[in-house]
Input
Amino acid sequence: MMYFKSLLIVILAASGVQSAQAEEFSELLGATSNADQSKSKTVSSAANQSFILKQIIGKATPEQNIFIQFFASEKYDKALYSWWDAFKNTQFASSDNGRALYGYLLYKNGLPHIGLETLLKAEKPQNIHATLVQWWRQAMPVTNPLWTHLDNKTDIAWESVFGLNAAARDYAIWEQVVDLGLRDNTKVAAQKLNLLLKSESNAVGEDLLTLTAARFLFQNGYLEPAIRYYKKVAKNSDYYFEAQEEAAWSYMRLGEPQNALAITKTLVQPEFSTEVGPESVYL
Output
């Protein structure tokens, strides 16, 4: 009897019956052990995945059914292996859903960067199936640094469909900038910083970004460009006095002590004593 129960559940799964229906039918067959219930839930989950995939793909060929079975069973390596035979020269492969599904499959196979790039080839993200969007959002929440690779490829459609938050993305890039700077990888840090300087959301703050850009230039010996950036920091900014002091040090390294002195004479005025540290006095 147990054999026929299991067989019936498998048949329901293969036919793409929704999990709720499969579980209801199991209840009608009678009580099962905990092990049987666990197996039933696994089969039901696979059945639900199969049902969704058939909705996304449409009428499936035999090769596509093989792919669906692998994917629904979370055998992503085998699903990837079977992808080409299932979808070569098909309209689905080049569709928005096809790109999103293939990209997700690559992601699940340990190729996150290529997977994301494949997803981004979708022309209209709003056309991507809601379940595919959900899978992507679970795999890659907005705080995932991989989203920073979107750079300027995103638009309002991508941000709205995938729940991307421009501010969260800016902060993720900023964390990379700080980490790269601490490891003296200023070239890559500067590239990331440039993205933030061009960002419309400007979540991190223009003055802090400008000050950081000046510091990278100073660190690499580009003193005159560094001074230009230091001078861009607004007078009402919390970073103004830091920028002025560091600009003065830049003038010292340039061999222009008169300019350094002009700045520091202002910094050491009694009115600014709560804002300025002892380094300015020393300078």
Observations:
- The first helix runs from residue 2 to 14.
- DSSP finds 17 helices and no strands in the chain.
- Confidence is low (pLDDT under 50) at residues 1-43.
